[in-house]
Amino acid sequence: MTASAAGTRLAHRWHTARDYDTLARRIQFRNAELVAGLHPQPHEVAGAYEIGCGTGALTEALVRRLPVAEIDAVDISADMLAVAAGKPWPQRVRFSQGAFPDVPRERRYDAVFSNAALHWMHPRYPEVFAAINELLADGGLVCAATAGRTPATERFAETCRAALAPLSGLCEPDEFEARRLTLDEAAELSRAAGFTIDDAFVLERTVLVTTDTYARWWVASGGPWTATQVPAETSVDALTTALGGVGREVELVHASVFLRLRKQGPVERA
Ligand SMILES: C[S@@+](CC[C@H](N)C(=O)[O-])C[C@H]1O[C@@H](n2cnc3c(N)ncnc32)[C@H](O)[C@@H]1O
């Protein structure tokens, strides 16, 4: 089958938006609940901004947890936003398409939230943290999770690289590993952007998934094939085979850095 006959091409990373809610349920939906729960005074948030809302996993958690907040949610992908738009939302939620940090920043919010999106903005992390700071009112909070780097994610990446090595020609080196932050790196970026750190921790988990689920999830998340414009199903099949064939269970290692950051107010002078 040629790429055009396949109909689905990796023209951008989030081409399988319709699969996302199924594939991401065990990890990202749980992380979204944790991110929403990082805010200590949810009843006091009047205005919240969400970066990289995707199909609305975190947005849903925010609607439940922040009873009065107006929520502005932005995402770069029209496909992900279209899935979000198909769900029922209260009027206080507004979705818009935009590429963070290149978005208007006239308004100030009480809180900025993000789950599993900031790493897609690498290598612009410093600019991204500065833009988040600019969006916040003094004393405002950031509650976010982004891809984490741990010894276990390094080992996992190495195993995947070895499994994919025979597929050269189909796959190209993926930059994903460069997107991961250690806890120290996340703390450094936060302080450099003018935040104090209320809380910062890494959550690492190992999830047993079948090879085909794993392959689908990886390809949906960008995976190693973004540069080559290979049909999504070809990529999924190749990766499934490389990992040992359909139905076999593999251990997926996932790590996220969670942050609760506070924007410092103006320094009081005696
Ligand atoms: C893994 S999904 C996470 C979606 C959602 N936050 C969740 O918890 O399920 C990452 C999302 O980030 C979005 N994204 C990537 N780069 C972006 C950017 N520069 N600005 C806005 N959204 C972006 C993608 O389109 C995708 O919807």
Automatic annotation (TrEMBL):
Which InterPro entries did the record assign?
Methyltransf_25, SAM-dependent_MTases_sf
Domain Methyltransferase stretches: 50-140
**What positions belong to coiled-coil segments?**
none
Record-linked Pfam families: Methyltransf_25
- Write out the GO MF terms: methyltransferase activity
Keywords assigned by UniProt?
A: Methyltransferase, Transferase
Query: Which positions make up the signal peptide?
Result: none
Q: Which GO terms describe its biological process?
A: methylation
- Its recorded name reads Class I SAM-dependent methyltransferase
Query: What is the protein's species of origin?
Result: Actinocrinis puniceicyclus
